[in-house]
Design brief:
6 helices, globular, 4 strands, alpha+beta, single chain, four-stranded mixed beta sheet, about 40% helix, Glutaredoxin
Length: about 170
């Protein structure tokens, strides 16, 4: 059996450096994903989302952010992970509103009482007719990377519509 000399062992700071590099690479990879349409598309996406929600009796989640935002990217990954995707798809129409660098689609944000000045992502929930049900006044998921996926699950369950014949606690109905 071959033994390694002490000189070949990595110091603790090297493990920290490797961990940091991996985190940076994950963020860079996430930023390559295009989630948000061009800011000029927002009104059309919103109208289509409300129309789809009315036809399917779902709620609309407005996700205000941008592709440049690492936390917005992570939030979208959480929305679509194995635990949350079924809840999202059976209860919501997700509409991404591109806010540029917090300088676009301010009128849509104001219409739904969304405060962008404190950062993104920020969410609003509309009923199937486009009426505001919930609006984040502060970015609850301000640092999504420190949030558990279960926090997103709780959000989705809390604001989902209660459909006839379903219980408010059922995840998918």
């Amino acid at each position: 059996m071959r033994r390694f000399s002490k000189s070949l062992r990595l110091p603790l700071w090297a493990f920290g450096l490797v961990f940091f590099v991996v985190l940076v690479l994950i963020r860079v990879r996430a930023a390559e994903r295009e989630i948000y349409h061009a800011p000029a598309q927002a009104e059309l996406d919103l109208a289509a989302g409300i129309k789809a929600a009315a036809a399917s009796h779902k709620r609309v989640i407005l996700d205000f952010g941008g592709d440049w935002c690492g936390d917005c990217q992570v939030l979208d990954l959480y929305f679509h992970n194995a635990a949350n995707k079924p809840i999202l798809e059976s209860n919501y129409v997700l509409v991404h509103i591109n806010v540029g660098h917090l300088d676009q689609n301010q009128a849509i944000a104001a219409r739904y009482s969304v405060v962008l000045s404190k950062g993104v992502p920020v969410l609003a929930v509309l009923d199937e007719h486009g009426k505001l049900v919930y609006s984040q006044r502060t970015p609850v998921f301000e640092s999504v990377q420190g949030v558990q996926s279960s926090s997103i699950t709780n959000f989705l369950v809390r604001w989902k519509p209660v459909k006839p014949g379903c219980s408010a606690v059922q995840l998918v109905c």
